[in-house]
Amino acid sequence: MGTHWYAIGALILAFGTFVQSYTILFPKDPPTKPGQCPRFITHFPTGVGCNCDQDCPGDDKCCNYQCGSFCLHPVFIKAECPKPSGVGTCDEKCQEDRDCCCGRKCCSNGCGLECMIPKIVKPGHCGLWSPHECGDFCKDDAYCTGDKKCCPSFCGKFCKDPI
Q1: What tens digit of pLDDT does each residue of 2-21 get?
Q2: How far is CA 77 from the centre of its chain?
Q3: What CA–CA distance (Å, rounded) separates 150 from 144?
Q4: d(CA 110, CA 108)
Q5: What is the distance between the alpha carbons of residues 7 and 36, in angstroms, rounded to a whole number?
Q6: What is the CA radius of gyration of the chain?
Q7: Is the model's pLDDT at 116 over the cut of 60?
Q8: Rounded CA gap, 146 and 83, in Å?
Q9: Residues 60, 66, 67, 68: is their CA dihedral positive or negative?
Q10: How many CB atoms are located within 10 Å of the residue 50 CB?
Q11: What pLDDT is recorded for position 93?
Q12: Are 147 and 121 in contact (CB under 8 A)?
């Protein structure tokens, strides 16, 4: 009976060694910090030559550009609830965003709460209205590629580079 416990102890020790070796040989990717890298470098970086976000101080991110990688302050894209278009059902289908799946937010429908596709707001500003662009080419910034924003004109909305 005593040999049986030695065998079990040896198996447990071997398993523990295997698990420890596996985490050393195959480490997880370091977690990324929230936010996105800015499109252009507009201020002096807090670090040069980083490999991942953990190489950067505080909330700064490791951003890769053609001229190298730098630690920079991140920009944030906001996801806001759309404005209710009338009165929806008065059911409380969610209480908070984590009750929703697939990138949806818990928003008011005019009476109750339900999971909705958020309105995306990218950083930057539209600037002056354009008198030349007519037609509704976008609803919000999510409809525009890259860093472009959905901006109003005198006769609709269109995508343009932010200011």
Answers
A1: 566 665 655 555 555 554 54
A2: 7
A3: 6
A4: 5
A5: 52
A6: 25
A7: yes
A8: 24
A9: positive
A10: 21
A11: 94
A12: no
Q: Where are the alpha helices (DSSP H) in the chain?
A: 2-25
CA-to-CA dists, residue 120 to 38, 78, 147, angstroms: 17, 6, 12
pLDDT score, position 70: 92
Distance, CA of 86 to CA of 92 (rounded, Å): 16
pTM to 2 decimal places: 0.48
* DSSP 8-state class, residue 60: -
Q: Which two tokens stand for residue 54?
A: 């953990």
Q: Which two tokens stand for residue 80?
A: 């806001």
| Buried-state track 111-130, b at ≥16 Cβ within 10 A, e below 16 | eebbbbbbbbbbbbebeeeb
Asked whether the beta carbons of 161 and 147 are under 8 A apart, the reply is: yes
Burial of 18: CB neighbours in 10 Å, binned 0-12, 13-18, 19+: exposed
Bridge partners (DSSP) of residue 78 are 121
Write the CA distances from 39 to 52, 66, 75, 123, integer angstroms: 18, 12, 9, 10
Instruction: Find residue 47's DSSP bridge partners.
Output: 71
Structure tokens that stand for 98 in this block: 């984590």
Residue with structure tokens 């499109």?
39
Reduce the DSSP state of residue 99 to 3 states and report it: helix
What phi and psi, each to the nearest 5 degrees, are found at residue 23? -70, -25
Placement of tokens 């040989």 in the chain: 25
